[in-house]
Structures are given as structure tokens and as C-alpha cells.
Amino acid sequence: MLRTRAMWFLLIAIGSVTFTGAQDKKPVKNDEDEVIRVDTELVEVPVVVADRAGRPVLGLKQTSFVVSEDGKPQQITEFSSTSAPFEVALLLDTSGSARSELQLIQRAAQSFINSLRPGDRVSIIAFHTETKDKRPTPVAEILTGLTNDRSALSGAIEKMTTSNGTPYYDSLLKIAEKVFGDPAKPEFRGRRAIVALTDGVDSTSASGFEEARELLAESGVICYFIKVDTREFFEQNLLGDCHVAIRFSAAQIRRYYRIFAGSKVESTGDFCQLGDFERLAISKRLYELATEEMNSLAKASGGKVFPVNDLSEARSAFKSVADEIGTKYSLGYYSSNEKRDGTYRKIKVDVKGLPLGTQVRAREGYTAPVR
Questions:
Q1: Is 159 found in the same domain as 17?
Q2: Same domain, 116 and 236
Q3: From CA 120, how far away is CA 225, in angstroms rounded?
Q4: Domain identity same for 316 and 334
Q5: In terms of pLDDT, which residue wins out, 84 or 172?
Q6: How far apart are CA 40 and CA 22, in angstroms?
Q7: How far apart are CA 276 and CA 286, in angstroms?
């Protein structure tokens, strides 16, 4: 996450006053050699290092890493090893086909909580249905804020309910704004993650993917997805009599025609007017879109997508995510490019002294602030 530190100082001498201007963003040392930064922003870079076989490489030091921004070397000023704690927003999609398998989701989520370390803090987000304007409406709900109280987390998991839709984009936005809206404490800098169990196919959100992606990119949160394959189940129940079939939501139909059909207005908003062929075409593209969006968020943030065939495989996928979180390094630097021009800056991380084939996965870049 980019964090602004605005500090003004006043040096008082006999008969005179001297100001250090905010435009001077270089490190300044006082009489005690303490480094003070003026109007600078820390760029946080989470990193995973693995050998050729995919096993994590542990025990690396700050001096092992080289960071560049837009091809220019940067000075690493902050470093956290793999033993540092994490803050995790655990997003559980309890809609659609998940409604009949809520207990599987609960057991997998509890297993994930148990796999984390004592210092890690977790927030749980899920979906439920509430009545708005006399109509059942699916909403994303923060069941518990960030905490390391395992009994509180277990209680939240037990109280989860299901929803009649998937406000997936709204949930990502809520995590960025509410769970990770405040700056991280020093021990969690560069060590915040979203772990989402979902198929990624949004059906009811008021917000859009681009809005959520922008906020998540600004925050520097690492994105992990346990991608559940629900397409076969959905399409088996999508065809035939429109009155008993699973329906696309109005939001899904609008999204399909806007993105894929090159039309600002859908040819029909009535699900029953869609033939089986058109229903399958819409389903195919919406699932492809969900996969692209997940991969995009994971790659840009230094995270990963873990595909599973069904919810019965979720527990092992959660363990893989917990294992990776426990092997993350975090680097921080103050950019040598002091322009506040809103441009995208590319980040590259290399590790010295390791054999060819070593895999390094890190945050790929960030957008500079604007004055």
C-alpha cells in the first residue's frame, strides 16, 4: 500500500527560524541520525521465491533482493521475513450452487483459520439475503473485522448463511474500503491479502470490476483465489423451461451485451426470450470473463489462482494458500521518481545468488499518486 507521511519541521535557532519545505522529499537526518522523510510514500512489494520444483526458498535476507521501478534500481528501506504476521480478508461465496454445500464451505474455512499462525489476523466476509424495498436482495456482509481471536472467527463461520445472488464485485470493493481502508500497522505493511473462495461470476453487484480492481491495486493487497468450477452445475440447470431453470440476473444480461455483443442495450432483458443456444453462449463468456478477472488480479498483486473442481477440494486448496502466505517476503522502498503524475510504474524484483529456474512472484506495479 502506498502510505503518505507528511511531516513539517521547525528548527529554532537564536533570533532566526528555518523551514524545511515539503518539496524536499529526500531523507533528512537530525542530530540523532534519525532518518526523517518528508511527503514520501512507501511502495510495498510482497514477494514469493520458489525453486525450480516450486518449493519455497526460505531464509533470504534483505541483501538478497534487488528492486527496480521502470528499469531504475531502488533502495530497499523496509524488509519483512517470512515469519512476519499477515492480515487476511477471507471472502466466502455462499451463493448459487454453494447453497446446498454450506457445511463444506464452513469446514474448509475453519481448516484455513486453523492453518494460520497465531499472529495472523483475519476478517470474514460472506453473502446473505436481506429484504430491500420488499424484495430479497443479496448483499456482502463483513461478519467479523480483522482479529486473531480464533473463537470469534469460528463463531462467525458457524453463523454464515446463503444468498440468492452473487454480489462479488461489491464484496471486493467493501474489503478494499472497509477491511483494508485504514493504513496497515508497521508489522503488517506489505502483508495484507484477500483469499476468496468463489467462481468469480458476479450476478447482482451495483459496482463494477474496474472500480474494485483500482482500489485493490492502490492498496497493494495480494489476491488469492480458490476458483470453484460451477459452470457444469449452472449450465445443467440453465436450459429448458425458463420458469424452472436457473436464470441469469438482469445485471448479467446487461454485462454480457455491453462487453461481448457490442451493444449498449441488450436485445432482450427477458430471460424467457433467450433460446438455449444463447443462454449457453452468455454463460460461456461470463465464466471466461470471471477467469480473466481473477487471473488479472492475482498476477498484478503477486498472488495466485488455485482451481478446484468442486467444494470438496476447497480444504486442500486453502492449505496451499496458508502455506504460501507463510512464505511471503515483504519489501518496501521510496520511489526515486518523485513525480506525482498518476502514471503506472512497473516493478521488477530479482534475487541474487540463486540458481537458474528460481521463480520470483511479486507485485507488478502501482499507479503513482496525483497532487
A1: no
A2: yes
A3: 19
A4: no
A5: 172
A6: 9
A7: 15
Contacts of 113 (CB under 8 A, 6+ apart): 90, 122, 150, 153, 154, 157
pTM comes to 0.83
Name which of 286, 304, 287 is nearest 295 in CA terms.
304
Q: Write out pLDDT tens, residues 21-72.
A: 333 344 444 443 444 343 468 999 999 999 988 889 999 999 999 999 999 9
Instruction: For residue 243, give the amino acid letter.
Output: H
Instruction: Tell me, yes or no, whether 70 and 137 share the same domain.
Output: no
My answer on whether 318 and 333 are in the same domain is no
Domain that holds residue 356: 3-82+328-367
Q: How many CB atoms lie within 10 A of CB 341?
A: 12
- Asked if 203 and 165 sit in the same domain, the reply is yes
Q: 159 φ, ψ to 5°?
A: -90, 0
In 3D space, the residue among 3, 182, 163, 9 whose CA is nearest the CA of residue 91 turns out to be 163
Q: Which residues pair with 197 in a beta bridge?
A: 92, 226
Rounded CA-CA distance 79/323 in Å is: 20
Domain total in the chain: 2
From the list 133, 166, 341, 353, the residue with the least C-alpha distance to 247 is 166
CATH number at 100 reads 3.40.50.410
* SS3 annotation, 159-206: CCCCCCCCCHHHHHHHHHHHHCCCCCCHHHCCCEEEEEEECCCCCCCC
Residues 77 and 96 occupy one common structural domain: no
Strands 35-36 and 304-308: unpaired
Closest by Cα among 34, 31, 65, 63 to 48: 65
Q: Which amino acid is at 303?
A: G
